[in-house]
Amino acid sequence: MPGTIVVALGGNAVAPPGERPTIANQFRHTRESLAPMVDLARDGWGIVLVHGNGPQVGDELARNEIAADQVEPLPLGVLVAGTAGWMGYMIQQSLQNALTRAGIERRVVTLITQTLCDANDPNLRNPTKPIGHALDTVGLARLRARGVPVVEERPGRWRRLAPSPRPVAIVEREMVRHLVSAGHIVVASGGGGPPVDDDPKLGLEGIDAVADKDLVAAILGRDIGADVLLILTNVDAVFRAYGTPHQEPIRRLDLAQAEHLLAGKELGTGNMRPKVEAAAAFVRAGGERAVIAQLAHGLAALNGKAGTTLVRAGP
Q1: Catalytic site includes residue 213
Q2: Residue 267: per-residue pLDDT
Q3: Alpha-carbon Rg of the chain, whole angstroms?
Q4: Catalytic pick from 275, 287, 298, 307?
Q5: Structural domain of residue 173, as residue ranges?
Q6: Is the residue at 242 inside a domain?
Q7: Coil, strand or helix: which one is 7?
Q8: 147 noted as active-site residue
Q9: Catalytic residue at 234?
Q10: Is residue 152 a part of any domain in this protein?
């Protein structure tokens, strides 16, 4: 076996912006996104797949609110667990079918894992994580009228914000490690996993928030002793001066360079910053390397031919 790899796949890969997020469309995109997993399975990697749920959990929250006068709404933490379940089913079924067609005798299992956080995390009082799809004018006005925090991601594109505490550990990490060592492909920490606090008296208690799936993937990788973290996204690589005429891809970073990049303002506050933070955290904790790449180029990036590779020290 080449080693163990944790693959982080964004929720937008399954429900891309600008398209109706019907379940048929989401199944179609799921099937299209899993080709790299089949190749990794064929090569003998131990595989854990962590997926995002930003668009999906936002939709679930909206469904709850629309039907609130008919049925009892569910809290956000429970909705995270719910999306981890149905998205895990979708990924598990699609990947198992793809493996069978490829003649690969590996089984796929979805595990609902809880993400340990701190109930006193200040991030719980300052929502920063965008969820759901872009809001239309009516939806934006409704949320503002109710005092729900929103953000303008780019001119004219508004999204709802949810609290996002910093993940500390994965409660079911030993179960994930056991399943991977037995040769199974594990879908775990879906949507970052439902956040929980370990109360001294009550034990595990849910937190109504959404953990960042890339940071969770890095922690899960650390906890199970994974060799590689592969973060798949919709951008080719980490860029210097991103969004300017002078932008250029960074193909290789060592830990010191990554920390220098994170300390500056080049990454801005967009979704690349938590990916670089996650990659650096994974390598700092003992991982061999972390790779950030576009979904279509995941395998090429794993072989150093695309994306950005982050390692502990330079050559």
Answers
A1: yes
A2: 75
A3: 19
A4: 275
A5: 4-226
A6: no
A7: strand
A8: no
A9: no
A10: yes
